[in-house]
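Internal QA ticket QA-208
Title: Verify multi-chain structure generation after dependency bump
Assignee: T.L.

Test input:
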Amino acid sequence: MIEGSLAELQANALARIEAARNPEELEAVRVEVLGRKGSLAAVSKDMGKIPAEERARIGKLLNSAKQTLETALAARQEEFAGQALGARLESEWLDLTLPAPGIRPGSLHPVTQIQEEIEDLFRSLGFTVLDGREVEDEYHNFDALNIPADHPARDMQDTFWLDGGNLLRTHTSPVQVRGMETLPLPLRMIAPGRVFRNESVDASHEHTFYQLEGMMIDRDISVANLIYFMKTLLTAVFRREVTVRLRPGFFPFVEPGFELDIQCLICGGPGCPVCKQSGWVELLPCGLINPRVLRMSGIDPDKWNGFAFGLGLTRLVMMRYAIDDIRHLMGGDLRFLRQF
Amino acid sequence: MKFSYNWIREMVDGLAVEARDLERLITIRTAESEGVEEYGAKGACRARVLAVEPIPESHNVKAIVETEQYGTKTVVCGAPNCRAGIETIYVPLGKKKIAGVESDGMLASAEEAGINRDHSAIVEMAVEQVFTPTDSIIEIDNKSLTHRPDLWGHYGMAREVAAITGGTLTDPVDVSLLPAGDAVIRVASDDPELCPRFSALVFENITVAPSPLWLQFRLSAIGLNPINNIVDMTNYIMSELAQPMHAYDRALLNGDTLTARPARDGERVTALNHEEYALTPANLVIADARGPVGIAGVIGGLDSAISERTTSIVLEAANFNAASVRKTSSALKIRTDASMRFEKAQDPENTTRALARAIALMREVCPGARLAGGVADWKREMPAPPKVRLKLDWLARKLGRPVPAEEVRAILVRLGFGVSDDFEVTVPSWRATKDVSVADDLVEEVGRMIGYDSIEPKPPAVLSTVPPDFPERTYYRRARGMLASQGFTEVHNYSFLSEEQAAQMGFDPAALVHVLNPIAANQSVMRPSLIPGIYANLVENRKHLDSFRLFEIGREIHRRDQGLPEEVPHLAAALYGEESGLLELKRVAEALAAEVRVRPAEARGFEHPRRTAEVLAGGAVVGRLFELHPSFIEGRAAILDLDLRLLQPHERRASKYVPLRRYPSSGFDLTVLAPTRELVGELQDKMAALAGPLLERIEYVGQYQKSDSKSVTFRFTVGAADRTLSSDEVGAVRLGIIEGMRRLGYELTV
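Actual output:
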């Protein structure tokens, strides 16, 4: 008898578990069937009335029914939990095309960016980076660089003169002089910075621009070494193998002096408007440091020699980004500066 | 400087290189070329008119011409002088009907042929002076010739070309033409430094007339205007030998002596350009018995100028000090072909060579002229030609490549140097004035002639070293990166301001560093602050943007009583928008240095009086944080201005690690009532001081504004390194703060 009602109870409960429409209904079934006062508990209470020889068998049946129901219940609970999670996830749909909140990073000035790049490159080659003054005296800007008093570079039209007899540096070379005066030998240094030339501003001329000059002084520095360093530099700057050529150029600071040209990166040599059909673009002045310059800074040219070069950072920036108006660079217009 | 290819070719035998290739060679070996241009009418060649027939009812004639390059041609010509037998210039133009007759090309006027301005007739060449009416002009960048006085004449360039191409150089000068005997005039120099040599020659029986057409063509081709035979001859010699010359009308000179001397105060001279110049003793003049007749090395005087009435001339070829000529030329603002050359330090040996050349040319340009007397020649003692010892192994080390002895010798000899067996090199006079004096200068001569492309790039054999670093530089760099990551974009502003801009920000213009020669009146002082520039950036950018952030790292320039001005690196950052960005900027300051505090400060005129503070680091003022005064800008512009020199030592840096707490901390909140304008920072300091040593940290939670006061809530975290605090201990700390604050007169909501 008891067997029959147990089977019926189980079948009935399973049907109800299956039919439960939500976790609450399922919980109600659990309480009713498996709870402390539930129908299974009621059956087990009646176990005492069952003859002892039957008790073990019926007990087994009871346990089996309980397990079956618990398993079914758990499966159904899991089913509901899965549905609930699914519903939650679905409700949490988010439009990821919305703009990201918060601050957009700003940009560094393109001149700063290229300057930092070249600084890193030279530091990796063992060069010190030096800062110099923007206001200089005549000695450091001219005399010590072998630019004597009658050199055209000293004319009023090229140099900004300040009261007190000072001037705005016309190149970063004075930093090299101060470097030679203060750093121990051998030395390798670069000096990036702002320089000034007294000329009217238009799309291709600025009175304020940025240069990077460098020098290396050691025991036995040759033209071959100079070419090596310049090629290494330019290959890194332009991120490709560049062909360079040296030709004579006159700068009082060096002897021999060179203009270094690179083969036009636009046409690769045959000639185009950028290189004015010559196949070459003039890029930087350089040379072996004039022994007079070394001597003026207290360096014995019989023991030491070296090379020096100058690189126009502003020009390099204009080349790299194809900027057609130099005035943008000192213009402070964020619509321009944010592009970099 | 323009160079005529034909002129150079006349002096270099066997020159087989075309103009375009020669231009490239010159660029690589000698000086920078700016390009080659063809000169003369396109395709022009010499031609002889064989016959002329009239054309009915036309003023034109039909001419049969035999051309040098195109065979016999028929052209229609309207020139009055078109007649059989003349030597003229033919220009191929294609066939075209004129006055009903087919004309194949044209005969050119002097203007069309590029000889001079005359277009009244076709060219008639003198039979004995026919010339090729086309040329290629190579223009060399003057800047690349500043150290080469000899290259300011064609002969100097021809020497280079001969050295480059292996051709034979022909000297156009025949010094044996110089007449011996006493001169009929006297020349002198009162200052052997400023005028080391003064040579002159007198010609009589002069007829001033136009120069031969070949000479006019040549001068026009290199950009000089033909004037008359005498003036053109001096210009021709200057362009050939780099020796400027001047011709005086002898009849208009006073006395028989020309002296180079400093001008006397108050002396004046009217120059060939019809301008009158007031002179000072800083200007060297050429004077006759009455006074200056020219400004030495710069320009001649009008009173003794050559004219159609001239019959006798004094031809001057002198040498002047480069610096003196340059100073006079820039002081008087006259730049001439002569001054440009003397500025480069010309060769004193060249003066009599130029006179010898004049004797030869005079026969062509003024056939009736006669020499009067010998050469007048004043010169100081000339230094012996400098000698330089060149060691070949040293040369190889400098270049990074060995060069065979015979090659070195050949190069130097072709360039005019003397070379002894043991390589003692004698510098020729035309390279000795300024250019070559030490062995390093010879490295260049050899290097450029062997070609720098023959040198293999080589890394130097030097020690690897870690370069010393400068903490300021790395700091600026980190600061830039940090600002950019916080949304600030870097600007570069000029170092110049107008006086008004400076005054607007409270600076006394008189106390600033002034530019003596500003590019514009509004850029006349050096910036004593980055703020005026940043202010201008704000004004400009708000035209396009509703909100933005920008910054600059640059130098302030401050006047000092003596010596160089002080340059102070500053960082200025600005945040513009509808809401105040002051606290954001404060966060930026805190990120840049440890223990940054701000303290309300008295506002300057352009600062918001209630939104201005000083920024402190390590207890010292390092900058300011403020909003611009609303009368300066619409919207809110917050600005942070920091002295990086003062800030950098406070850069955030961990020195020693603090062990992590092993025992849990406890926390509690307290809310204090305070007057509305009581500073939260001060409240926090007071409460922190009362909390005692168990306080780990105190944080601001928030504040509520009431009508005449505010309540401010802080969160306290307390703990100990060696134990967990008991609730009694935590309670004691809390009570201590409450009672302490009450003693100070504050109420707390507990």
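Spot checks passed. The beta strands of chain A are 128-129, 135-136, 167-168, 187-196, 208-218, 244-248, 254-263, 280-289, 305-312.
Status: verified.
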